[in-house]
Predict the structure.
Amino acid sequence: GLGAQSLITDVVSGFFILFENTYLVGDVIEAAGAKGVVEGIEFRTTKIRDGDGRLHIVRNGDVKQVVNYSKEYAMAIFGRVSRGKPNACSLANSPAMVAHSFSFQEGRSS
């Protein structure tokens, strides 16, 4: 009945959390009202240790939205463009810009 349905929801959600690497053990996340370091991920539950040392055991079916503070994101600023403004680009999306930016000399873009 209803208990089996929530168990299935928890297990399916846990599978997707593990399969999609939404978060990993050691990541700092915010999910289902808890914020802290992930100590364990199981098929039914996720264990999150908050800053006060409390262990939150969250049902994976209750995890609707996750903020992962440990996922990588980088911006780089290289040299100057001809108008004298810094040249910013996302490293993940602009390898050509990165290569171009390394070729500048004395504050001028080539």
User: Anything to note?
Assistant: DSSP finds two helices and seven strands in the chain. Residues 89-110 have pLDDT under 50 and may be disordered.
